Amino acid sequence: MSPRAVLCRQSTNSSEVSAPLRFTDNGTFQISIFEDLHFGENAWDSWGPEQDVNSTRVVNEILDAESPGLVVFNGDLITGENTFYENGTKYLDQIVAPLISRGLSWASTYGNHDYSFNVTGATIFAREHLWPNARTQQMVSDANAGVSNYYLPLYDAKCSDDDECAPELLLWFFDSRGGFLYQQLDVDGNQVGQPNWVDESVVNWFNETNTEMVQRFNKTIPSLAFVHIPTNASLALQEAGVDARTEPGINDDVPLAQQAQGWCPNGTDDRTCEYGGQDVPLMKAITSTAGLMAVFSGHDHGDTWCYKWNSLLPGLSVTGNGVNLCFGQHSGYGGYGSWERGARQVLITQSKLKDLEVDTWIRLESGNVVGSVCLNSTYGQDTYAETPDTTKQHALERQ
């Protein structure tokens, strides 16, 4: 499929947004990334719904403090294993309510907890599109692809014809799947595990679509990517050593959990293997995509750093090209961990795109800002203030 066919492609659903994303008149665009909200956890206990109330408060507080043009829900919107078939997706209504009230649009990737016996990416996708301003799409139809694989173009404020203007920026979204297959049990009555990596059909689509975009507009278009589970490159970077001054952020999930964790190279998940290597095609695609500035992940609630991948590291067969691999901040009160909740912010400025630079920071629910850095050519060499680990302090405050 050519880029012209999918560029700004809109759903026929009447709730779908009609206007493409655009930079503001002053040439900026901000994204707020909420990770691991985990709504619907233990709904049968009083503390479960209370967590959802607190998660909604976090979203409201951060949106009051920031001014995003787009909100990204980067996986694990729902704790799927705690939901029932009849109401598994109703939590989407609570999740998007703060955005609806502000007239904000959003885009999602789905995570491993969004795939379970009673809820899955397809049912969440359908629920999202009952509401206005949902931008989540499904551009890869392969049965093994998952759902949330798509891109969104971002245009100059003065562009009057989106079919003719070249996008100023591309936002890529990948479904790392995981969890369990929807409504399927094996012969012993157990849930059936789903692969936890970006499928090769998605990687092929990404490579082909990006190549066609470059050919159509005769230029490299800067881009950012979002995927819930990080690749094995993030683990290799962590093992190489995260410096609190040059890669500021919490680094408490050690070792972190990467794509293809727990799977064997032959595609089985019989608990005999630590890592199967099925994310190598995605790592190759990431490092061969000119203009891709950063990939943002969640999944590991206790990691919040960004790291420039610019070398061949032990355990990897793919050499980094300088792309930045970033974690967000655990945003929801569901899910493990007592780190202070928050959300990563990304500010794209058109004047900086020519140098492939973006600014990013984390806004915490306390109102504090941590980890404010510029992802530029010298990131990883520049020094910044260390990010305080708020785990113990936050846990005591909430008791």
From TrEMBL:
Pfam families: Metallophos. GO terms for molecular function: hydrolase activity, acting on ester bonds. Residues 36-301 form the Calcineurin-like phosphoesterase domain. CDD domains: MPP_Dcr2. One of its GO terms (cellular component) is cytoplasm. PANTHER family: METALLOPHOSPHOESTERASE DOMAIN-CONTAINING PROTEIN (PTHR32440:SF11), PHOSPHATASE DCR2-RELATED-RELATED (PTHR32440). This is Metallo-dependent phosphatase-like protein. The lineage of its organism: Eukaryota, Fungi, Dikarya, Ascomycota, Pezizomycotina.
